[in-house]
Amino acid sequence: MKKTHSGEPLKRGTLAKKLKCNLETIRYYENIGIMPQPMRTPSGHRLYSQSDQERLRFILRCRELGFSIEELRKLLSMVDSDGYTCGEVYALTQKYLHSVTNKIADLKKLERTLKAISKECAGGDTPDCPIIEALYLD
Amino acid sequence: MKKTHSGEPLKRGTLAKKLKCNLETIRYYENIGIMPQPMRTPSGHRLYSQSDQERLRFILRCRELGFSIEELRKLLSMVDSDGYTCGEVYALTQKYLHSVTNKIADLKKLERTLKAISKECAGGDTPDCPIIEALYLD
DNA sequence: CCTTGATCCTGTAGTTGCTACAGAGTGTAT
DNA sequence: ATACACTCTGTAGCAACTACAGGATCAAGG
Protein backbone atom coordinates (compact mmCIF):
# COMPACT_ATOMS: atom_id res chain seq x y z
CA MET A 1 0.00 0.00 0.00
CA LYS A 2 1.45 3.27 -1.13
CA LYS A 3 0.86 6.44 0.78
CA THR A 4 -0.78 9.07 -1.38
CA HIS A 5 0.28 12.65 -0.95
CA SER A 6 -2.30 15.08 -2.19
CA GLY A 7 -1.01 16.75 -5.31
CA GLU A 8 0.55 13.60 -6.67
CA PRO A 9 -0.35 12.59 -10.23
CA LEU A 10 -3.06 9.95 -10.39
CA LYS A 11 -3.79 7.12 -12.77
CA ARG A 12 -7.02 7.01 -14.67
CA GLY A 13 -8.85 4.61 -12.39
CA THR A 14 -7.89 6.48 -9.26
CA LEU A 15 -8.94 9.80 -10.72
CA ALA A 16 -12.25 8.32 -11.87
CA LYS A 17 -12.95 7.10 -8.36
CA LYS A 18 -11.89 10.38 -6.80
CA LEU A 19 -14.15 12.46 -9.00
CA LYS A 20 -16.84 9.79 -9.20
CA CYS A 21 -17.01 9.49 -12.92
CA ASN A 22 -16.77 6.56 -15.26
CA LEU A 23 -13.29 5.39 -16.18
CA GLU A 24 -13.96 5.58 -19.87
CA THR A 25 -15.42 9.04 -19.71
CA ILE A 26 -11.97 10.46 -19.02
CA ARG A 27 -10.52 8.85 -22.11
CA TYR A 28 -13.54 10.01 -24.06
CA TYR A 29 -12.92 13.61 -23.04
CA GLU A 30 -9.32 13.21 -24.16
CA ASN A 31 -10.44 11.82 -27.52
CA ILE A 32 -12.79 14.70 -28.19
CA GLY A 33 -10.10 17.15 -27.14
CA ILE A 34 -11.49 18.78 -24.05
CA MET A 35 -9.02 17.05 -21.75
CA PRO A 36 -5.31 17.38 -22.61
CA GLN A 37 -3.15 14.40 -23.36
CA PRO A 38 -1.75 13.59 -19.95
CA MET A 39 1.76 12.51 -19.03
CA ARG A 40 2.49 8.84 -19.27
CA THR A 41 4.53 6.41 -17.22
CA PRO A 42 7.36 4.74 -19.18
CA SER A 43 5.00 1.86 -19.88
CA GLY A 44 2.27 4.12 -21.20
CA HIS A 45 -0.13 4.49 -18.31
CA ARG A 46 -1.76 7.90 -18.06
CA LEU A 47 -0.82 10.18 -15.21
CA TYR A 48 -3.05 13.10 -14.32
CA SER A 49 -1.43 16.13 -12.73
CA GLN A 50 -3.09 18.41 -10.25
CA SER A 51 -4.15 20.81 -13.00
CA ASP A 52 -5.51 17.94 -15.11
CA GLN A 53 -7.59 16.97 -12.13
CA GLU A 54 -8.90 20.48 -11.70
CA ARG A 55 -9.81 20.66 -15.35
CA LEU A 56 -11.70 17.41 -15.21
CA ARG A 57 -13.58 18.60 -12.15
CA PHE A 58 -14.50 21.78 -14.00
CA ILE A 59 -15.75 19.74 -16.95
CA LEU A 60 -17.76 17.39 -14.78
CA ARG A 61 -19.34 20.28 -12.92
CA CYS A 62 -20.38 21.99 -16.09
CA ARG A 63 -21.83 18.75 -17.44
CA GLU A 64 -23.68 18.26 -14.18
CA LEU A 65 -25.14 21.72 -14.59
CA GLY A 66 -26.30 20.54 -17.98
CA PHE A 67 -23.99 22.48 -20.29
CA SER A 68 -23.58 20.62 -23.56
CA ILE A 69 -20.14 19.58 -24.71
CA GLU A 70 -20.25 22.37 -27.28
CA GLU A 71 -21.10 25.00 -24.69
CA LEU A 72 -18.37 23.56 -22.55
CA ARG A 73 -15.90 23.85 -25.40
CA LYS A 74 -16.64 27.55 -25.63
CA LEU A 75 -16.25 27.98 -21.92
CA LEU A 76 -13.00 26.06 -21.97
CA SER A 77 -11.58 27.95 -24.90
CA MET A 78 -12.23 31.15 -22.96
CA VAL A 79 -10.47 29.70 -19.96
CA ASP A 80 -7.62 28.32 -22.09
CA SER A 81 -6.99 31.50 -24.00
CA ASP A 82 -7.05 33.26 -20.68
CA GLY A 83 -8.44 36.15 -22.64
CA TYR A 84 -12.05 35.85 -21.66
CA THR A 85 -13.88 38.70 -20.09
CA CYS A 86 -16.54 38.54 -17.48
CA GLY A 87 -19.02 39.75 -20.07
CA GLU A 88 -18.43 36.85 -22.45
CA VAL A 89 -18.84 34.25 -19.75
CA TYR A 90 -21.89 36.04 -18.44
CA ALA A 91 -23.48 36.05 -21.87
CA LEU A 92 -22.96 32.32 -22.32
CA THR A 93 -24.31 31.60 -18.88
CA GLN A 94 -27.37 33.77 -19.37
CA LYS A 95 -28.13 32.11 -22.66
CA TYR A 96 -27.93 28.75 -21.02
CA LEU A 97 -29.95 29.93 -18.03
CA HIS A 98 -32.63 30.95 -20.44
CA SER A 99 -32.82 27.48 -21.96
CA VAL A 100 -33.09 26.01 -18.48
CA THR A 101 -35.95 28.32 -17.60
CA ASN A 102 -37.73 27.35 -20.80
CA LYS A 103 -37.24 23.69 -20.11
CA ILE A 104 -38.78 24.12 -16.68
CA ALA A 105 -41.81 25.82 -18.20
CA ASP A 106 -42.21 22.97 -20.72
CA LEU A 107 -42.00 20.34 -18.04
CA LYS A 108 -44.52 22.14 -15.88
CA LYS A 109 -46.94 22.22 -18.73
CA LEU A 110 -46.37 18.53 -19.21
CA GLU A 111 -46.90 17.94 -15.51
CA ARG A 112 -50.22 19.74 -15.65
CA THR A 113 -51.28 17.70 -18.66
CA LEU A 114 -50.37 14.43 -17.02
CA LYS A 115 -52.19 15.38 -13.86
CA ALA A 116 -55.23 16.40 -15.83
CA ILE A 117 -55.45 13.20 -17.83
CA SER A 118 -54.86 11.02 -14.81
CA LYS A 119 -57.36 12.85 -12.59
CA GLU A 120 -60.30 11.09 -14.23
CA CYS A 121 -58.74 7.76 -13.56
CA ALA A 122 -58.90 6.48 -10.03
CA GLY A 123 -56.92 3.41 -10.93
CA GLY A 124 -59.62 0.80 -10.67
CA ASP A 125 -60.02 -2.58 -12.33
CA THR A 126 -62.05 -1.37 -15.22
CA PRO A 127 -60.74 -1.31 -18.76
CA ASP A 128 -61.48 1.77 -20.87
CA CYS A 129 -58.96 3.95 -19.13
CA PRO A 130 -59.48 7.67 -19.71
CA ILE A 131 -55.72 8.16 -19.94
CA ILE A 132 -55.48 5.91 -22.96
CA GLU A 133 -58.51 7.54 -24.45
CA ALA A 134 -57.11 11.00 -23.95
CA LEU A 135 -53.99 10.00 -25.80
CA TYR A 136 -55.62 7.86 -28.44
CA LEU A 137 -58.60 9.82 -29.55
CA ASP A 138 -58.80 12.98 -31.52
CA MET B 1 -54.34 15.98 -58.52
CA LYS B 2 -56.26 13.27 -56.77
CA LYS B 3 -59.12 14.02 -54.47
CA THR B 4 -58.43 12.72 -50.97
CA HIS B 5 -61.30 11.33 -48.96
CA SER B 6 -60.68 11.30 -45.27
CA GLY B 7 -60.19 7.73 -44.13
CA GLU B 8 -58.24 6.75 -47.21
CA PRO B 9 -54.90 5.02 -46.66
CA LEU B 10 -51.95 7.38 -46.91
CA LYS B 11 -48.40 6.96 -48.12
CA ARG B 12 -45.51 7.58 -45.80
CA GLY B 13 -44.70 11.10 -46.92
CA THR B 14 -48.30 12.21 -46.75
CA LEU B 15 -48.76 10.75 -43.29
CA ALA B 16 -45.56 12.38 -42.12
CA LYS B 17 -46.79 15.74 -43.31
CA LYS B 18 -50.23 15.22 -41.82
CA LEU B 19 -48.89 14.34 -38.39
CA LYS B 20 -45.91 16.67 -38.68
CA CYS B 21 -43.21 14.13 -38.06
CA ASN B 22 -40.13 13.19 -39.96
CA LEU B 23 -40.57 10.77 -42.84
CA GLU B 24 -37.91 8.42 -41.53
CA THR B 25 -39.33 8.36 -38.04
CA ILE B 26 -42.28 6.32 -39.26
CA ARG B 27 -40.03 3.67 -40.76
CA TYR B 28 -37.96 3.74 -37.59
CA TYR B 29 -41.03 2.99 -35.48
CA GLU B 30 -41.82 0.11 -37.79
CA ASN B 31 -38.28 -1.24 -37.46
CA ILE B 32 -38.34 -1.20 -33.70
CA GLY B 33 -41.74 -2.84 -33.73
CA ILE B 34 -44.04 -0.23 -32.28
CA MET B 35 -45.74 0.48 -35.58
CA PRO B 36 -47.19 -2.49 -37.48
CA GLN B 37 -46.04 -3.43 -40.94
CA PRO B 38 -48.46 -1.54 -43.11
CA MET B 39 -50.16 -2.67 -46.29
CA ARG B 40 -48.23 -2.16 -49.48
CA THR B 41 -49.14 -1.13 -52.98
CA PRO B 42 -48.30 -3.77 -55.64
CA SER B 43 -45.00 -1.97 -56.16
CA GLY B 44 -44.13 -1.96 -52.48
CA HIS B 45 -45.05 1.50 -51.30
CA ARG B 46 -46.39 1.60 -47.74
CA LEU B 47 -50.03 2.42 -47.18
CA TYR B 48 -51.21 3.52 -43.78
CA SER B 49 -54.78 2.73 -42.82
CA GLN B 50 -56.92 4.86 -40.57
CA SER B 51 -55.99 2.76 -37.55
CA ASP B 52 -52.28 2.93 -38.42
CA GLN B 53 -52.65 6.68 -38.46
CA GLU B 54 -54.31 6.70 -35.07
CA ARG B 55 -51.61 4.52 -33.64
CA LEU B 56 -48.89 6.77 -34.93
CA ARG B 57 -50.63 9.78 -33.48
CA PHE B 58 -50.82 8.01 -30.14
CA ILE B 59 -47.11 7.24 -30.29
CA LEU B 60 -46.18 10.78 -31.25
CA ARG B 61 -48.28 12.22 -28.46
CA CYS B 62 -46.70 9.98 -25.87
CA ARG B 63 -43.25 10.90 -27.12
CA GLU B 64 -44.18 14.54 -27.01
CA LEU B 65 -45.18 14.05 -23.40
CA GLY B 66 -41.72 12.65 -22.88
CA PHE B 67 -42.46 8.96 -22.41
CA SER B 68 -39.47 6.89 -23.39
CA ILE B 69 -39.80 4.28 -26.10
CA GLU B 70 -39.67 1.59 -23.43
CA GLU B 71 -42.47 3.19 -21.43
CA LEU B 72 -44.37 3.56 -24.66
CA ARG B 73 -43.89 -0.13 -25.41
CA LYS B 74 -45.53 -0.99 -22.10
CA LEU B 75 -48.39 1.38 -22.78
CA LEU B 76 -48.83 -0.05 -26.26
CA SER B 77 -48.71 -3.64 -25.12
CA MET B 78 -51.52 -2.81 -22.72
CA VAL B 79 -53.49 -1.24 -25.50
CA ASP B 80 -52.71 -4.10 -27.88
CA SER B 81 -53.64 -6.87 -25.50
CA ASP B 82 -56.78 -4.91 -24.81
CA GLY B 83 -56.52 -6.41 -21.37
CA TYR B 84 -55.22 -3.41 -19.53
CA THR B 85 -56.98 -2.03 -16.54
CA CYS B 86 -57.27 1.55 -15.56
CA GLY B 87 -55.08 0.81 -12.57
CA GLU B 88 -52.14 -0.41 -14.65
CA VAL B 89 -52.18 2.60 -16.89
CA TYR B 90 -52.57 4.88 -13.91
CA ALA B 91 -49.56 3.31 -12.20
CA LEU B 92 -47.36 3.80 -15.24
CA THR B 93 -48.53 7.37 -15.64
CA GLN B 94 -47.97 8.20 -11.99
CA LYS B 95 -44.48 6.74 -12.10
CA TYR B 96 -43.69 8.86 -15.07
CA LEU B 97 -45.32 11.91 -13.52
CA HIS B 98 -43.05 11.41 -10.58
CA SER B 99 -39.96 11.47 -12.75
CA VAL B 100 -41.20 14.66 -14.39
CA THR B 101 -41.73 16.31 -11.02
CA ASN B 102 -38.23 15.29 -9.96
CA LYS B 103 -36.76 16.64 -13.14
CA ILE B 104 -38.46 19.97 -12.52
CA ALA B 105 -37.00 20.11 -9.03
CA ASP B 106 -33.51 19.35 -10.36
CA LEU B 107 -33.76 22.03 -12.99
CA LYS B 108 -34.98 24.58 -10.50
CA LYS B 109 -32.03 23.87 -8.30
CA LEU B 110 -29.80 24.31 -11.31
CA GLU B 111 -31.54 27.56 -12.15
CA ARG B 112 -30.90 28.86 -8.66
CA THR B 113 -27.25 27.85 -8.86
CA LEU B 114 -26.77 29.53 -12.20
CA LYS B 115 -28.45 32.68 -10.97
CA ALA B 116 -26.34 32.69 -7.85
CA ILE B 117 -23.04 32.29 -9.65
CA SER B 118 -23.92 34.86 -12.27
CA LYS B 119 -25.15 37.41 -9.75
CA GLU B 120 -21.61 38.42 -8.79
CA CYS B 121 -20.78 39.01 -12.37
CA ALA B 122 -22.09 42.17 -13.89
CA GLY B 123 -20.69 41.30 -17.26
CA GLY B 124 -17.93 43.86 -17.50
CA ASP B 125 -14.67 43.85 -19.39
CA THR B 126 -12.58 42.45 -16.59
CA PRO B 127 -11.08 39.01 -16.71
CA ASP B 128 -11.24 36.86 -13.55
CA CYS B 129 -14.89 36.10 -13.91
CA PRO B 130 -16.53 34.84 -10.74
CA ILE B 131 -18.54 32.32 -12.74
CA ILE B 132 -15.42 30.58 -13.96
CA GLU B 133 -13.96 30.71 -10.51
CA ALA B 134 -17.07 29.22 -8.96
CA LEU B 135 -16.84 26.31 -11.34
CA TYR B 136 -13.11 25.89 -11.33
CA LEU B 137 -12.12 26.18 -7.72
CA ASP B 138 -12.73 23.85 -4.85
C1' DC C 1 11.23 -14.72 -7.44
C1' DC C 2 6.85 -15.97 -9.01
C1' DT C 3 2.19 -16.04 -9.45
C1' DT C 4 -2.30 -14.01 -9.12
C1' DG C 5 -5.54 -10.57 -9.66
C1' DA C 6 -6.32 -5.81 -10.31
C1' DT C 7 -5.53 -2.25 -13.29
C1' DC C 8 -4.13 -0.27 -17.57
C1' DC C 9 -3.73 0.02 -22.75
C1' DT C 10 -5.97 0.14 -27.60
C1' DG C 11 -9.64 0.13 -30.91
C1' DT C 12 -14.22 -0.69 -31.67
C1' DA C 13 -19.24 -1.62 -30.90
C1' DG C 14 -23.29 -0.67 -28.30
C1' DT C 15 -26.81 2.65 -26.23
C1' DT C 16 -31.31 6.01 -27.26
C1' DG C 17 -34.19 8.09 -30.54
C1' DC C 18 -34.01 9.48 -34.21
C1' DT C 19 -32.16 11.82 -38.92
C1' DA C 20 -29.78 11.71 -43.22
C1' DC C 21 -27.78 9.80 -46.78
C1' DA C 22 -26.88 6.83 -51.49
C1' DG C 23 -28.50 4.44 -55.27
C1' DA C 24 -32.22 2.37 -57.30
C1' DG C 25 -37.06 1.86 -58.45
C1' DT C 26 -41.98 4.20 -59.06
C1' DG C 27 -45.77 7.65 -59.82
C1' DT C 28 -47.54 11.53 -61.92
C1' DA C 29 -48.01 15.89 -64.44
C1' DT C 30 -47.27 18.17 -68.59
C1' DA D 1 -41.76 11.14 -73.41
C1' DT D 2 -39.59 13.25 -70.08
C1' DA D 3 -38.94 15.46 -66.00
C1' DC D 4 -39.30 15.59 -61.29
C1' DA D 5 -41.22 14.10 -56.97
C1' DC D 6 -41.73 10.48 -54.27
C1' DT D 7 -40.68 5.81 -52.41
C1' DC D 8 -37.82 1.81 -51.46
C1' DT D 9 -33.62 -0.47 -49.06
C1' DG D 10 -29.65 -0.64 -46.08
C1' DT D 11 -26.49 1.84 -43.66
C1' DA D 12 -24.02 5.75 -41.36
C1' DG D 13 -24.29 9.69 -38.48
C1' DC D 14 -25.65 12.59 -34.20
C1' DA D 15 -24.82 13.35 -28.65
C1' DA D 16 -22.44 11.77 -24.81
C1' DC D 17 -21.09 8.40 -23.18
C1' DT D 18 -20.47 3.11 -21.71
C1' DA D 19 -18.87 -1.45 -22.38
C1' DC D 20 -16.36 -4.76 -24.31
C1' DA D 21 -12.25 -7.85 -26.23
C1' DG D 22 -7.64 -9.05 -26.15
C1' DG D 23 -3.44 -7.91 -24.61
C1' DA D 24 0.29 -5.51 -21.50
C1' DT D 25 1.71 -4.07 -16.86
C1' DC D 26 1.63 -3.36 -11.92
C1' DA D 27 1.42 -4.45 -6.87
C1' DA D 28 1.06 -7.65 -3.17
C1' DG D 29 1.34 -12.20 -0.98
C1' DG D 30 3.65 -16.60 -0.52
Keywords:
138 residues; mainly alpha; Multidrug-efflux Transporter Regulator, Chain: A, Domain 2; 2 domains; two-stranded antiparallel sheet; 6 helices; elongated; DNA-binding
Question: Can you walk through the features of this model?
Answer:
The structure is a homodimer of 138-residue chains. Chain A has 138 residues and is an all-alpha fold. The termini of chain A are far apart. The first copy, chain A, has helices spanning 12-19, 23-31, 50-64, 69-81, 86-119, 130-136, and strands at residues 39-40, 46-47. Chain A folds into 2 domains: 1-67, Multidrug-efflux Transporter Regulator, Chain: A, Domain 2 (Orthogonal Bundle), CATH 1.10.1660; 85-138. The first copy, chain A, is 62% helix and 3% strand. In chain A, strands 1-2 form a two-stranded antiparallel sheet. In chain A, α1 (12-19) crosses α2 (23-31). The first copy, chain A, is built from 6 helices and 2 strands. Chains A and B meet through α3, α4, α5 and α6 of A and α3, α4, α5 and α6 of B. The structure holds a DNA duplex (30 and 30 nucleotides).
